[in-house]
Please model this.
Amino acid sequence: MKKKSDKLDNVLSDEDRALFREAVAGVRPLTSSRQWIAHSSKPVLRVRAPVAELDWDVYPQQTLPPVGGEDVLSFRRPGIQNRVFSQLKRGKFHPEAVLDLHGLYAAQAQKETRQFLSDCLKRAYGCVSIIHGKNTGRGTKYPVLKNQLNQTLQACNHVLAFHSAPVNRGGVGAVYVLLSKGSLKDREEHF
Model:
């Protein structure tokens, strides 16, 4: 079986190859694939803020039962209107940013999630999406990242509600998160 590069050898001349190598001479591969994607017209700037300054519920009210790989994640704080929560569940809000946690260990995923939420709150994003997957990992009965994300999102007082994404946008392997949108001045007090 021929490699793709073997097929290209027949198509490209030596002169074309030299031009290509010259054009990409200073290019380096990306160091990390863990970048989140903004889906808005706002410029994407990664602002690093101390994560500890976010308003986290340090002592959760209850220990949450484990969630299975095919279970739906769903949570809303008191005061969230039924209509708003229904729109979130049906995917009517367009996520302004997406974070993909695939391939991360639990500690890395939690750090990335907290930083992502911090960045999104600073930008006053209303709805974001976090892809966690359904994989249970080795030797565990329940999906590690999904359960950790459930705990983390409920512990963040700036998360108003979240629900598993619609089937065509990740289903039970992703979650849509509705964030508080207070005034920018109010937000800066928490960072």
In short: The domain at 37-188 is CATH 3.30.1370.110 (Ribosomal Protein S8; Chain: A, domain 1).
